[in-house]
Predict the structure of Methyltransferase domain-containing protein.
Amino acid sequence: MNCGYALLTQSGETLPLSTRGDKLQQFQLQMYHYAALGIKFQGSLAGKKVLDLCCGRGGGVAFLAKQYEAAEAVGIDFSAHQINTAQDLFTNGLEKETEDNQASSSPQSSIQFLQGDAEKLHQVEELNGKRFDLVMCIEGMHCLGNPTAMIDYVQKHLLADNGQIVIVDSFDKCDIERIEANFQKDKKLIIQKKEVITFNVKHAMQLDKTRAEKLIQRITGNKVVTRILRNFLASGEESKTYDELGKTHEYICYVLMKKSAVDLRKTSSSLYQGQQEQQTQGSNSYFGFSAGHHQPFNIRNQSNSFSSNYGASANLVNSQTAQTY
Ligand SMILES: C[S@@+](CC[C@H](N)C(=O)[O-])C[C@H]1O[C@@H](n2cnc3c(N)ncnc32)[C@H](O)[C@@H]1O
């Protein structure tokens, strides 16, 4: 699972989760929610097809499919062990989940887990001819030797016309400029949104410290192995990951979109502007980095006041990212 995402409040919650399993992974699921919906102020994935690259054991994408009514969700991971676990837990219409989860599972969602290399997606036969509205890669990009190849392939062969690619990861500050240029090379994709969420990730790691520590103790009693795990386990506060965030690295969420789709939106927006001068202001902010504007979004079965809280915090984070640690 990923490092987690927390609001900058005492509890850090963005989602009031109900099931025991979901609550245990509160911050990791919040990261998925933030990347799929929160950053875009959307409330649902209804009718959308979602592909999760480097999905791990599949809990994140299964949560999205279940809670936000994606029409189809596919998770891909290199590790056969992770995929087997994901299939055991979440496939067959999400039937094999815990009793708690079954109650809130969405019968509309179809979910599939495939073993495959994100850098060789052409080899994953099941993907042939498929197009996705949302392609996510959460804390997977740093594992890839040639992430540009993955993004090129997704853009050419797997992304629907108005689809978005969401990349979330920790990036070395020295590499950010080059990576952003690579995202937009050949002018096929543009960065539609970018948010530095280092504060939210570090806060999640702090709040998750006890759980991470228990997990480490469960895995090993050996002091040396414990030290190594503490250093590298994503959720361990005072781990290498925690320490370098904000100093040498930033944790960033990028939303990429096909240039052609953005041009189309711009064109229709300016046509619209001619007719309805007033309403174009919102669409301008759509193209900016960290626009910080806030539209309410609904969480299934949740109230709007909760959503407002989330939006306000996103703005707070944006204003904080310029500060030093
Ligand atoms: C830090 S985990 C993130 C898992 C998940 N996205 C999440 O946020 O919970 C990184 C995952 O990437 C997978 N991975 C690494 N290299 C990969 C590759 N080339 N293709 C597909 N998956 C890969 C690993 O097996 C691991 O499950």
User: Anything to note?
Assistant: The chain has a mean pLDDT of 79.
